[in-house]
């Protein structure tokens, strides 16, 4: 029995259903973070590990950029790298993330050295970079579609953290403000691309699986934090230990 492909709008509905079910806003560590249930050391661990995601996103995007076939697509994708790396030192998303880790009292050199990283963070982020380098362009673009769901989690996180932690200020969370406009712009483009190019059942399944994969990347990063820093006694040897 052959199955008919979805219409572009049905595909969008199926993608949004994956986010509703699997995005990391549903993870217990995320809820604990924004509900004020974590101590400062646990929040530091989150920021230090998430730094690796931020730092590798431009490498992920550069890998894809190199494979894109047209100037139009490359121009669109190039902006993502500029957003994260900035045009000059101390601008861009990575620099803003380091202001968050500074604000939490972490040593910059230590954060940038990646020495304190959990093994699970390392594997999850690297898996994302490899995925984008190895899969089809359609799957690589589809894997960025978690950004469809990020404005909601970012608003929830920022308001929750400001309300619940006396060591968090607007200034330390400044990373997130531009993301509220950058993420919708980026995900609108990626969604339109995917709706236009995923026409066969095989392509549509590949796109849906790419988004599931990416949800798993984000989920495993929080699993690793939860296991190491919330359950007692599970911090792996050699990584960041809260004071
Ligand atoms: O704060 C978040 O929960 C969150 C989620 C995501 C995401 O859904 O992948 C990204 C970001 N933030 C983010 O800041 C960011 O720059 C980013 C880039 C990408 C991507 O896949 O290219 N996702 C995300």
UniProtKB/TrEMBL annotation:
InterPro entries: Haem_Oase-like_multi-hlx, PqqC, PqqC-like, Thiaminase-2/PQQC
Domain Thiaminase-2/PQQC residue range list: 14-223
Record-listed E.C. numbers: 1.3.3.11
Catalyzed reactions: 6-(2-amino-2-carboxyethyl)-7,8-dioxo-1,2,3,4,7,8-hexahydroquinoline-2,4-dicarboxylate + 3 O2 = pyrroloquinoline quinone + 2 H2O2 + 2 H2O + H(+)
Superkingdom, natural source: Bacteria
Keywords attached to this entry: Oxidoreductase, PQQ biosynthesis
One BP annotation, GO: pyrroloquinoline quinone biosynthetic process
Pathway: Cofactor biosynthesis; pyrroloquinoline quinone biosynthesis
Record family assignment: Belongs to the PqqC family.
Record function comment: Ring cyclization and eight-electron oxidation of 3a-(2-amino-2-carboxyethyl)-4,5-dioxo-4,5,6,7,8,9-hexahydroquinoline-7,9-dicarboxylic-acid to PQQ.
HAMAP family: PQQ_syn_PqqC
Protein name: Pyrroloquinoline-quinone synthase
Organism (species): Acetobacter aceti
């Amino acid at each position: 029995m052959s199955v008919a492909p979805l219409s572009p709008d049905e595909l969008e509905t199926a993608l949004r259903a994956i986010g509703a079910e699997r995005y990391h806003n549903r993870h217990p560590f995320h809820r604990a973070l924004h509900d004020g249930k974590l101590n400062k050391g646990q929040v530091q661990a989150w920021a230090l590990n998430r730094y690796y995601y931020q730092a590798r996103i431009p490498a992920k995007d550069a890998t894809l950029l190199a494979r894109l076939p047209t100037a139009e697509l490359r121009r669109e994708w190039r902006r993502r790298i500029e957003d994260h790396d900035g045009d000059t030192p101390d601008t861009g998303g990575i620099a803003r993330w380091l202001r968050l880790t500074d604000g939490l009292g972490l040593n910059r050199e230590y954060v940038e050295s990646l020495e304190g990283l959990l093994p699970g963070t390392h594997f999850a982020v690297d898996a994302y970079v490899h995925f984008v380098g190895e899969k089809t362009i359609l799957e690589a673009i589809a894997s960025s579609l978690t950004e469809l769901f990020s404005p909601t989690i970012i608003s929830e996180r920022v308001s929750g953290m400001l309300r619940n932690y006396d060591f968090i200020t607007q200034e330390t969370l400044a990373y997130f403000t531009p993301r509220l406009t950058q993420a919708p712009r980026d995900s609108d483009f990626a969604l339109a691309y995917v709706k236009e190019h995923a026409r066969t059942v095989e392509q549509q399944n590949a796109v849906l699986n790419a988004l599931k994969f990416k949800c798993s990347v984000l989920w495993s990063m929080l699993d690793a934090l939860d296991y190491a820093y919330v359950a007692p006694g599970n911090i792996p040897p050699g990584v960041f230990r809260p004071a």
